[in-house]
Design goal:
Blueprint: E1 29-35, E2 41-45, E3 48-49, E4 57-58, E5 69-76, E6 79-85, E7 92-97, E8 103-105, E9 108-116, E10 124-130, E11 138-144, E12 148-152, E13 159-169, E14 174-178, E15 183-186, H1 188-193
Parallel strand pairs: 8-15
Antiparallel strand pairs: 1-2, 1-5, 3-4, 5-6, 7-9, 9-12, 10-11, 10-13, 13-14, 13-15
Length: 196
C-alpha cells in the first residue's frame, strides 16, 4: 500500500529458468533474501501501479533458489513492509477425486484433495490440468483457497489422457500431488457431432 507501508506476500513458487525475466531489476523497493549459508542478499524491486486501486502497487521478484534460503523481507526506505520465513515442515497433500479411468462428457469434473500442514500454516493451492498424461501442464488457478475445484469438461481441452495436479503452498514451502492415472475429458459438442 502506498500510504500505510504494508505489503502482502503471495506464496513463494519455484519456477523454471525460462520463466524468469532477464532484464535486471530496478526500483524503490528492496527484496532481502535471508540465508543460513551467509549474509543477507539485497536486490531492488520495481513496483507497478495496480489496475484496480490507485493506492496499491504490485511487484515481482526472482532469486536463484537455494535450500539455504530461510526467508524474505520486503523493505522501502528502510521500513519493513512484509516478511516471510520458512516453516519447519512442508504441507502434505493427496488427491481424492476424480478416479483414474473415469470419462466426463460435457459435465462437471469434481477435483478434490486432502491437505494438512504440521505447522498450522494457512494453505493455498495451485490447480493445474494436463492433456498429455502429465508431460505438460496448464494452470487453472494460482491461489485456490479450498480443497475442491469443480470445472465443466466443456471448458477444458478434450483428451483421452487428462490429468490434474495440485500444489499445496504454505507461503514458503510447497508439495505436489498428481493423479495416479488419467481420465477422458470430452467436449459435449465433439461427442454430439460424432453421433449425428
Amino acid at each position: 500500500n502506498r500510504t500505510t507501508d504494508v505489503a502482502d506476500l503471495d506464496p513463494i513458487e519455484i519456477v523454471r529458468p525460462s520463466e524468469v525475466p532477464t532484464t535486471p531489476m530496478t526500483g524503490a523497493l528492496e527484496l532481502v533474501v535471508h540465508s543460513s549459508a551467509g549474509p543477507d542478499v539485497v536486490q531492488p524491486l520495481e513496483p507497478h501501479d495496480s489496475p484496480n486501486d490507485p493506492d496499491q502497487f504490485t511487484f515481482h521478484g526472482w532469486v536463484p533458489w537455494s535450500p539455504a534460503i530461510t526467508g524474505f523481507t520486503i523493505r522501502r526506505n528502510g521500513i519493513t513492509l512484509a516478511q516471510t520465513h520458512m516453516s519447519a515442515h512442508a504441507p502434505q497433500v493427496s488427491i481424492v477425486s476424480p478416479m483414474p479411468g473415469d470419462t466426463y462428457i460435457g459435465e462437471d469434473i469434481p477435483f478434490s484433495w486432502t491437505a494438512s500442514d504440521m505447522d498450522g500454516d494457512p494453505l493455498t493451492f495451485r490447480v493445474e490440468y494436463s492433456i498429455d498424461g502429465g508431460v505438460t501442464w496448464e494452470m487453472l488457478s494460482s491461489s485456490w483457497q479450498t480443497s475442491s475445484f469443480v470445472v465443466n469438461s466443456d471448458l477444458l481441452r478434450s483428451t483421452p489422457s487428462a490429468q490434474f495436479r495440485v500444489i499445496a503452498m504454505d507461503g514458503f514451502l510447497s508439495s505436489t500431488a498428481v493423479m495416479s492415472g488419467t481420465i477422458a475429458v470430452i467436449s459435449s459438442e465433439i461427442f454430439d457431432s460424432g453421433f449425428e
